[in-house]
Amino acid sequence: MSILNSITKSRVWRSFFRHGWPDNPLDRSLIMTTNVFFHLHPVKVNLKSIKATYSLGLGILTVASFISLALTGIMLMFYYVPSVERAFPDIVALQNSVPFGQLFRNMHRWGAHLMVLTCVLHMARVFYTGAYKPPREFNWVIGVVLLILTLGASFTGYLLPWDQLAYWAITVGTSIASYEPVMGALIKKILLGGPEVGQASLTRFYGLHIMVIPALLFLLISLHMWRVRKDGGLAANDLDVAPAEDAQK
Fold this sequence. Notes:
Layout: H1 2-8, H2 11-16, H3 25-34, H4 36-39, H5 52-55, H6 58-77, H7 87-96, H8 101-128, H9 137-157, H10 164-177, H11 184-192, H12 199-230, H13 238-248
Helix pairs in contact: 6-8, 7-8, 8-9, 9-12
């Protein structure tokens, strides 16, 4: 115990842990307020919102997929050059010559499919449980934007292998976008950088895929999680529900 006491009372220990052992209300509250992971959670939540069967962990799965995609994407960037001459050979070399290259590429591809799936299911769960209702309307709008960005990330990554499937899929996809009545032609020109799929298209899709969309996703996911905390969790607060129940009685 003397060794333990000497460690816990040392300046190094106190620089990390600014409170005592949580055996009293003050130190317990300090643990919550000084720990960023604990502080992310709301002060009070509805009991049903912490049940696993209520949220099914779909929001957490979506965030975990995003983190996995970021990590595997960084690894793939070391072996990929966004050039029409080198893109496809780099993908082939990545799968056949780089140690664990095919594993990382498959993790990235299937992780993208998983993120789209869990994001859609998360939105459906929020809608059918009424978790978008006041005071959560703003967070619902953020969620819709996140869904659009998730689909955009999946779409922009489709061209990067530069194979026949990717080439013609992007050709058809951007052609469909051009039929948008107001800005269709401009949208197609911005995406392709020219009249047809080429080097400019690959460069733009690569820039959107690795920089623009991930940065927006990171910022909006952070704001989304912060709003969940500020709004009192994943479901209605007990204080919000109580007056309605009293009125019915």
